[in-house]
Write a structure and sequence with these properties.
The complex is a heterodimer of chains A (258) and B (341). Chain A is α/β, with parallel strands linked by helices. Helix content of chain A is 34%, strand content 25%. Classes of the chains: A alpha/beta (258), B alpha+beta (341).
């Protein structure tokens, strides 16, 4: 039986207009990521890593080619359906955390559920509390984000990304603004999520961290120039591919909605 | 408890207090201006109309160059279409107050207790005035420092000075206010007028038409027949006044003033609208990242738009909560202050 990839990009091209003419950020990128993979995307600044993530999350649309994520061809999805689709299928984690400063930690985690209209207010709070326990932030639940450390904010951002129980987590430089110890903790958290069944795609400049995932995609000038795990990815679908594998604190059931 | 997104809206309002206060104040000023003006106009409409109707304002007034007596008044009262007729006498003197003097119109009524047209109403002190006493129209109090119980000096034509006791304050709803026209109005008996050197004849004839529903043209027809009758008696008419029936003399002026004021009020509201639009534009510019983030975690366009429209709604609700009670009470306060003058 053929297992459909969670992410399936076919000949994706993305061009932007600029003063010097059109700039091609992605130049015929094709990529398959299977369920349960932990994929690192590396490359120099301006090579197209963030544009690739924007294609996967539907934040931006391709100029050419096809993008299918979690079974939906999002390159053709109308804008009015895109936000709902994103809220249910993709958890996005940013380098600078992007927590809303006037909402408390737990309210930030509840926000995606509020937009998606999932459950009652009590159920949202219960799930947010559960997710904060998972990232070891439940004791900070009522604090404002700015009164917590960078590492703690990134943990909250991860909890928020998990709020609607999406199958795919996409992280853009999630450790780029953290010290090495905190970055290690966040990376381990991603490993646990992969162990629990999530698919994680992470853009990073940190070659050491990228090396600890079994699949690393290298980009240069809008093209994928290296993919050390593509041949195995179909065979490893559904399994964690993190080295060294961290202790599993979060069983798959713990991440399920409700 | 409101949903998380609405908590963000409320906290943004709370955390940016200065901005919220400015926007609320600008809307409130506009709403207050428009509300006060519209409220004042409505209140004044009702107040003027009620007061004016109660005063039994004259359908027509004839000012004569030669004096006439009671007999002509009775003849006119019996003419077809005339319900009531009343003769009066008005003279102009000067009221001396310190180094200054002001023009004072002294009007003598034949019987204060049996008035039927353009009623002079008691407000304070003695009513009706007795011989040697002066009843001042209340609008005079804004121009001269006189109170009930004072004795005032008046200068009659020829330069002689006489003294009158101010024993009461009255109100004549149809009389031109002293503070607009600069002329004080006072009421005396014919005996007082005679004491001051005039005779007890009339030089004004006021009538009320029998049919209260007549328009101005209908009243003019009756006024013409009255004019002819007066002139047949040998009395020369200086001019005849036929005002718009059932309408206060100041109505047209006030309407024009209110149109101008309402224009200014709406302009301030319009400017407040620009201010709000500008503020929301600044908020949106400041929160582009937050909006992007909210969309990244699943917010749909209408949900994000709803939050910022909610912000505008909150500004409006706060402004209305401040402005409406003020706008509602201001016209009453203004009207009360008018009543005391």
């Amino acid at each position: 039986m053929t297992v459909a990839p969670v992410i399936d990009l076919r000949d994706v091209v993305k061009e932007y207009p600029s003063g010097a003419g059109r700039v091609r950020a992605l130049n015929g990128v094709s990529l398959e990521v299977m369920h349960g993979e932990f994929v690192a995307v590396v490359g120099r600044s301006g090579c197209g890593k963030s544009t690739l993530l924007n294609m996967i999350t539907g934040i931006d649309r391709p100029t050419g080619g096809r993008v299918t994520v979690a079974g939906t061809e999002i390159s053709r999805l109308p804008e009015r359906q895109m936000a709902r689709w994103r809220g249910e299928n993709v958890g996005v984690i940013f380098q600078f955390f992007q927590l809303l400063p006037t909402l408390s930690v737990i309210e930030n985690v509840m926000l995606p559920m509020d937009f998606a209209g999932r459950g009652s207010a009590d159920e949202r709070r219960a799930r947010a509390t559960h997710l904060l326990e998972l990232v070891e932030m439940s004791d900070q639940a009522d604090k404002l984000p700015l009164s917590t450390s960078g590492g703690q904010q990134q943990r909250v951002a991860i909890a928020r990304a998990l709020a609607n129980d999406p199958p795919l987590l996409v992280a853009d430089e999630p450790t780029g603004n953290l010290d090495s110890t905190t970055a290690e903790a966040v990376f381990r958290l991603f490993g646990e999520l992969v162990e629990a069944g999530k698919t994680v795609v992470m853009v990073t400049h940190d070659i050491d961290l990228a090396a600890r995932t079994r699949r690393t995609i290298r980009m240069l000038d809008g093209r994928i120039v290296g993919d050390d795990g593509s041949d195995r990815s179909r065979d490893l679908a559904g399994r964690a591919v993190v080295e060294p594998a961290p202790a599993v604190h979060a069983p798959a059931s713990a991440l399920s909605a409700g | 408890m409101p949903g998380v997104r609405w908590r963000k809206v409320l906290r943004d309002l709370r955390d940016y207090r200065a901005r919220t206060a400015l926007v609320v104040a600008s809307i409130a000023v506009g709403v207050f201006a428009v509300g006060t003006i519209v409220g004042s106009q409505a209140l004044l409409d009702r107040s003027l109309s009620d007061g004016f109707q109660a005063s039994r304002s004259a359908s027509a007034t004839f000012y004569t160059a030669t004096a006439f007596d009671r007999e002509l008044v009775d003849v006119v009262a019996d003419l077809p279409g005339v319900a009531e007729a009343e003769g009066r006498r008005s003279v102009i003197v000067r009221l001396l107050s310190g180094d200054a003097s002001r023009e004072l119109q002294l009007t003598a009524l034949p019987d204060f207790r049996r008035q039927s047209i353009d009623l002079v109403l008691a407000q304070e002190g003695q009513f009706p005035p007795r011989r040697g006493e002066l009843l001042l129209e209340r609008s005079a109090l804004r121009l001269v420092d006189v109170a009930v119980g004072d004795e005032v000096t008046i200068r009659i034509p020829g330069g002689d000075e006489r003294r009158l006791d101010v024993t009461g304050i009255g109100h004549s709803p149809g009389a031109p206010p002293a503070f607009y026209f600069g002329r004080l109005i006072g009421y005396v008996t014919f005996e007082t007028l005679v004491d001051l050197g005039w005779d007890d004849s009339y030089d004004e004839l006021r009538i009320l038409v029998a049919d209260e529903s007549l328009d101005r043209a209908g009243v003019r027809e009756i006024a013409d027949s009255v004019r002819q009758r007066i002139e047949r008696s040998g009395t020369a008419i200086t001019f005849a006044l036929v005002p718009q029936p059932r309408q206060h003399p100041a109505r047209e002026v006030l309407d024009a003033v209110f149109v101008v004021l309402a224009g200014i009020g709406f302009l301030s509201l319009f400017v407040a609208g620009f201010f709000v639009a500008n503020t929301i534009s600044v908020i949106l510019a400041q929160q582009v990242r937050q909006i992007g983030l909210m969309k990244a975690v699943g917010a749909r366009n209408h949900q994000v738009a709803g939050m910022y429209l909610g912000t505008v709604g909150a500004y409006a609700a706060l402004a209305l909560a401040v402005a409406i009670p003020l706008a509602a009470s201001a016209p009453m306060g203004w009207l009360d202050s008018r009543r005391t003058c």
